[in-house]
């Protein structure tokens, strides 16, 4: 059995039967995907809750290629590239658009899977194409943005986990750069807006609010911000007039789950070594000796209390892997 604690940023004690590092895309065609298997990037959105009785295939494909066109840059990055290094490198070359997404942990290949987003920007906006190995059909696919079916923290890849192994992503970054600063605290940058300022501000805020996984093991937001209807919102606002929410579509809003968790007094909640992060309640942390069981119990407790108080069922944003593969967390309603 191979230790997995150092292979995922939540650092839970867990092992797997075998571990394969993929560092050449041609090798994908030779891989045997015997069940159960799990596709891993940098392990910043995966929690190994238990010993996984299968093979972990870790994407280490590297390389970036930039093509300058008349109105845009087309940037192709291999899936195993570190996301933040990629964003930082583009910023240094004055190729802008991804600055709001600085310091998001993880790899380039993981970005489209959950359509990573922060401070008013989702990566999908800039994705031109995703190249992947279709594990079921044993063939290469080149998916356009619309093929990927992106929406809030979701994509075709997330809906059918284990179906495609992403090898590279092509980003289209228009030269006509448009700053996105409507999200707090980027709206404080008024009159002083450059891609570098946005990049710096995002780094500052994330470093202040979100625990550094190297110091305090965590996997970023543990839950998604739930999307509810305007009618549900009106009911909740009667009870909690200062509840934080963001418009999504004509009849839909996204409620700040961190606000709900904090407001229900769960910010100092802990079970064993698993705890709610005191600076941003949407993030759960490993205080050092957390087990998978501590984390699932804590997550269930939060889901239960949020459901009882608001009628909202929180959904984990992270992926939880148990003995046979992905786990779903449910609570009694
Ligand atoms: N809030 C609280 N208490 C908390 C946490 C948040 O009241 O403990 C309130 C904040 O004051 C703010 C609102 O909730 O008014 C939203 O909080 P924040 O801006 O921190 O963002 P979030 O909605 O909790 C999302 C992403 C983050 C991303 C931030 C920044 C999801 C699931 N999470 O969090 O992404 O960095 O927005 O835009 O959408 C991640 O996915 O791992 C991640 C960190």
Number of domains: 3
What percent of the residues sit in helical stretches (DSSP H or I)? 10-25%
Strand order of the largest sheet: 6-7-12-10-11
- The helix/strand order is EEEEEEEHHEEEEHEHEEHEEHEEEHEE
Write down the CATH topology of the largest domain: Uridine Diphospho-n-acetylenolpyruvylglucosamine Reductase, domain 3
**Broad shape:** globular
Number of helices: 7
Q: Count of DSSP E strands?
A: 21
Using only CA atoms, what is the Rg? 20 Å
Indicate the mean pLDDT.
96
Structural class assignment: alpha+beta
Q: What is the CATH top level name of the largest domain?
A: Alpha Beta
What is the terminal separation in angstroms?
Answer: 38 Å
Main sheet, how many strands, which sense, barrel?
5 strands, antiparallel
CATH architecture of the largest domain: 2-Layer Sandwich
Brief write-up:
The chain has helices at residues 83-92, 110-113, 156-159, 195-209, 230-239, 257-263, 292-310, and strands at residues 2-3, 15-22, 37-40, 46-48, 52-59, 64-68, 72-78, 117-118, 121-122, 127-134, 139-144, 164-174, 218-221, 227-229, 245-249, 252-255, 270-271, 274-276, 283-286, 319-321, 326-327.
């Amino acid at each position: 059995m191979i230790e997995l604690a150092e292979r995922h940023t939540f650092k839970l004690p867990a092992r797997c039967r075998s571990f394969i590092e993929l560092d050449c895309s041609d090798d994908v065609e030779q891989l045997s995907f015997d069940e159960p298997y799990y596709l891993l990037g940098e392990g910043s959105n995966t929690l190994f809750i238990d010993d996984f009785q299968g093979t972990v295939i870790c994407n280490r494909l590297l390389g970036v290629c930039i093509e300058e066109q008349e109105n845009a840059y087309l940037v192709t990055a291999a899936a195993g590239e570190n996301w933040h290094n990629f964003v930082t490198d583009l910023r240094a070359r004055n190729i802008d658009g991804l600055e709001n997404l600085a310091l998001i942990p993880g790899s380039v290949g993981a970005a489209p899977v959950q359509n990573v987003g922060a401070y008013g920007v989702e990566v999908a906006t800039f994705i031109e194409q995703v190249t992947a190995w279709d594990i079921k059909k044993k063939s290469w696919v080149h998916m356009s943005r619309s093929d990927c079916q992106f929406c809030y923290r979701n994509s075709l890849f997330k809906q059918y986990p284990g179906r495609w192994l992403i090898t590279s992503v092509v980003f289209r970054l228009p030269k006509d750069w448009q700053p996105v600063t409507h999200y707090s605290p980027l709206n404080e940058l008024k009159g002083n807006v450059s891609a570098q300022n946005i990049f710096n501000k995002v780094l500052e805020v994330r470093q202040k609010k979100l625990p550094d996984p190297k110091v305090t093991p965590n996997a970023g937001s543990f839950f998604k911000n739930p999307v509810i209807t305007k009618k549900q919102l009106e009911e909740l606002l009667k009870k909690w007039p200062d509840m934080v929410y963001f418009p999504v579509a004509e009849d839909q809003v996204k409620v700040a789950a961190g606000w709900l968790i904090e407001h229900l007094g769960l910010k100092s909640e802990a079970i064993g070594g698993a705890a709610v992060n005191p600076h941003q309640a949407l993030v759960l942390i490993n205080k050092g000796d957390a087990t998978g069981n501590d984390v699932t119990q804590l997550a269930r407790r939060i889901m239960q209390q949020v459901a009882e108080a608001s009628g909202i069922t929180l959904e984990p944003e992270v992926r939880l892997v148990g003995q046979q593969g992905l786990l779903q967390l449910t609570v009694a309603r």
